[in-house]
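note to self: dont lose this again. the chain is below, predicted strucutre after it. 362 aa total, dont forget to put it in the shared folder this time
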Amino acid sequence: MDELLPVITLLMATATLIAGLTLVAVKLAHRIILVGRGVRSAIYIAALGEMIATKLLPSHMPRQWARDRLFHQAIIDYRRLLSGDDGEFVDELIKRSKVLPSLRRRIQPPWLNAIRLRAIGSYVALASQQEIPYLRSLLTDRNEFVRFHAAHGLGRLGDVASVPLILDLCVRVRAWEVAKLADSLPLFGREAVYPICRWIDLAWQSPNSTEQAVAEAARTLGLIGDLDAEMTLLELLESDRREWRIAAASALGRIGSDSSRFALLRALRDESWEVRARSVRALAYLADGSVAPIVSGLLSDSQWWVRQNAAETLGELPGGVVELTKALESEDHFAADAARNQLAELRLLPAGVSPRLSVETQ
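---
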């Protein structure tokens, strides 16, 4: 054993030395790669800047540029910054460089998903109206993240005709995907209100419609906040599906009409505490002090979230602090506690009232 010890020690020292040299080599190679990328990026930025400044298009652009993601990023940055004549010139540069056909090839299988996602991210940022049919075709791609990018690209381009396609897709995919796809809908702006409302009307009558897809469509209408969506949302608030009523209540708070206010006040008596909680918070957006006495009645609700939301709403409504102060003397200790909690948050507790808050368990 003693004879083997020097050999073992030598082997361990050699292994340590090799590992150390390998680590140094890897770090050095990584450093060289980073420096090389920085140089390439600088070259692209300078070359594109010169072309844009002189408005001169080269007769031939290097073929490898279209395949280099550093070139993609450089031209994306210029496209986001420039508009008018300069923006049109960048569009012509994109066409002349043939970067979009190169990206389309990388988006298609059998490329690895990481490569496909990088490619479609760049494609969406550079796409023009001519790419709409291709982006629509990607809504049926097997990769969910490709579908998300395609939906956002269509939203960025304002292709309102694709709104029903995205909503139809929401019916067929998993629950977590629905929310991701719905995130693209506000990008379409006010022009999407009519197709969304039309889709909801048809989905209401369809046995295949999912509760979540309709709810996400309703929430989108609230984010857009257009009065033309009010009738659809009012009908949803009267539906027999709890999730639809919750979404409609949240959305109506952003519409701001008298009809919305009356509907939300009725919804304060809904059998579902989630609907009551959303409705009372939605009233805060309307900033109508006349509803404060009605809202204060929910400080005695049986559900903690409803009481909490009612107190927060009163803290934001004109005259709401007066109602909170009155509730401090309520015989209902739940109402008094909710009022004390909110007044403490606002640092408006009257003198002589203890700021200590009770802790409730449901």
